[in-house]
Each structure stands twice: as C-alpha cells, then as structure tokens.
Amino acid sequence: MAEKLLPCPFCGASASIERLGDRSRSTIYQCDSCSCSLETGEEWGHGSDWNRRTLPPSIRDFLGKVQGVCMGVAMSGRDHPNTDGALMELFNEAQTILFPSTPTEGGAE
Ligand SMILES: [Zn+2]
C-alpha cells in the first residue's frame, strides 16, 4: 500500500505515482504541475522516497517569509521602510527553527 504523497517540494502542487515499481522496474513520481519528477528503486512502501524530499511545513513557511521580505526589499530598494528590522526578524525566526533550545534575547540566564 502506498503512502499518501506530500505536495511537490518545489511548487507545492499535488503529486502522483506515474509508475509503480517492483523488482524489475523503477518507481516514478511526478508533480501534477511542474516538471519535477523522481525515479527511485522503491519496491515496496511506495511514497516514502517522494515524501522524504518534502520540506517540513515550518521550513516551507519560513522560506515563504524570506521570499516575501526579499521581494519587498527588491521592489522598494533603498526606500524599504524597515529592511534591517525585517531581516532581523527573519534571522531570529531562523534561529528558533534551527536551534529550538537556544535561549532568546532577554531570557533567563
Ligand atoms: Zn511541482
């Protein structure tokens, strides 16, 4: 039985199994939207190789915020209202995601 496939790691669209593999042929996963695909030697537990490639939701959300700030800065250039503040906020969030046990500024010592 195949695992439920997680969304495409590149565009977030749904994915499907194009070919179920076995001992004599490979398994092929295909994004339903972009041209992303994965060919693997999976013989059973179909879906696990595709799902392993997907970013955790917290990382996806964070990357979306980084993209938003970068686009805001790129569009407003030097006139961006708070470039340093926005970047510092992203930096702090990255620390929280990557090092969850790191004490935050102003915390107990
Ligand atoms: Zn895709």
Index terms:
109 residues, 2 domains, elongated, binds zinc ion, 3-stranded antiparallel β-sheet, single chain, 3 helices, alpha+beta
Protein model, in words:
38% of the residues lie in helices and 13% in strands. It has a three-stranded antiparallel sheet with strand order 1-2-3, with no helix packed on it. Strand 2 and strand 3 (37-40) form a beta hairpin. The radius of gyration is 20 Å and the shape is elongated. The protein has helices spanning 48-52, 57-76, 83-98; strands at 15-19, 27-31, 37-40. The chain has 109 residues and is α+β, with helices and mostly antiparallel strands. It folds into two domains: 15-52, no CATH class; 57-98. Helix 2 packs antiparallel against helix 3 (83-98). The structure holds zinc ion (ZN). Zinc ion (ZN) binds next to loops.
Major sheet? 3 strands, antiparallel
Mean pLDDT reading: 84
Coarse shape:
elongated
Classify the oligomer.
Answer: single chain
Helix content: 25-40%
Bound molecules: zinc ion
**Beta strands, count:** 3
How are the elements arranged and paired?
Blueprint: E1 15-19, E2 27-31, E3 37-40, H1 48-52, H2 57-76, H3 83-98
Antiparallel strand pairs: 1-2, 2-3
Helix pairs in contact: 2-3
The structure holds zinc ion (ZN).
In summary, what is this structure?
With 109 residues, the chain is of the alpha+beta class. 38% of the residues lie in helices and 13% in strands. It has helices spanning 48-52, 57-76, 83-98, and strands at 15-19, 27-31, 37-40.
